[in-house]
Amino acid sequence: MRRATILVLLILLLAGGALAAEAKKTETQTVPLPRGSQLTIRIDDGNLSLTTWEREEAEIQITRRVWARSRREAERRLESIEVEIRRRRGEVEMVVFDREGGRHGSFWDLFNPEAWREGYGAWVEVELRVPEGTALWVEGNDLDVQLGGRLGKVTVRLDDGDIDVRDLEAASLLLDTDDGEVNLYRVNLPQGRASVATDDGRIRVEECRIGQMDAETGDADVAILRCDAEKLSVRTASGDVELEPDLNSLARLRVDTEDGDVVLALPPHVDAELEIETDTGRIRSELDLPVERAEEGARIQARLGSGRARITIFTEDGDVILERR
């Protein structure tokens, strides 16, 4: 989403004459990368797309784009953006950096004419194919990341940027972004752990198989739909939570929010112990459950069926809604 917005705004800036010229260069190279190796990537201001293949090498395609006030300046600054690949036994590190330093033009600088008069705009597009089983570590600022394939342990830490994970098998996932969104779709970690955290970005998880899932956000919403997980934990400050879990393997579900509402959709036949409480909010249930109402809050404590799964929900000021699927 951020990538498309940046490109549209850059087109408008070019049309308006703020940046009169563009320089672009695409390079492809292949480096040996044995199966099971560690790949570390550090990029600012760009987009990273990664998938896997069966070869024991990494194919790297890098597109560098620079916008400046003149063609000559754009071409000069283009050459200052370098890609350094460092090889060590069992590990490859790729770093994209500007050897001249200076302003790259962050997302919010697009709205600041003074920032563009001071510097230039740069964008780096990286497409990677790596061996199956590669352990991945990604760091970046103003970086969007898309992942798929079969990987080992995956860690992505961003200051700003969206993370999109689709059709992925991995040993574990740790995804952390300050201001971006995180989307997981058809992710398979049946014995592994997925930990997802954002400050202000939405978290959405659909049709996944995960051993243990932890999701935490500040002011944004969380939706976990049609997912098979043994243990599931969700924590928000003011974001709402929408849950539609697969109860076949669920052993533990815990939700904690301060001001957010919680919607939990359950099948007609449930084997679970429910403990649901609000400080000042309401509880509305389509299930035939006794709701204890206090002066301000409400509470449900009930055992359904065999009580195999344990479901705990607490919100201070939000409401809880129990729906039938």
Q: What's the number of structural domains?
A: 1
Count of strand segments: 22
The level of helicity is under 10%
From the helix content, strand content and strand pairing, which structural class follows? mainly beta
Order of helices and strands: HEEEHEEHEEEEEEEEEEEEEEEEE
Give a quick account of the main beta sheet: strands, pairing sense, barrel closure: 22 strands, mixed
The appropriate CATH architecture is: 3 Solenoid
Q: Give the CATH class.
A: Mainly Beta
Estimate the mean pLDDT confidence: 87
Amino- and carboxy-terminal Cα gap: 31 Å
Radius of gyration from CA coordinates: 23 Å
Strand content: over 45%
CATH fold-type name: Pectate Lyase C-like
Which consecutive residue ranges, at least 5 long each, have pLDDT under 50? 102-111
The global form is: elongated
Compute the number of helices: 3
Task: Tell me what you see in this structure.
It is a single chain. 10% of the residues lie in helices and 61% in strands. It is mainly beta and 325 residues long. It has one domain (2-267): Pectate Lyase C-like. Strand 19 and strand 20 (298-304) form a beta hairpin. The model is unreliable at 102-111 (pLDDT under 50).
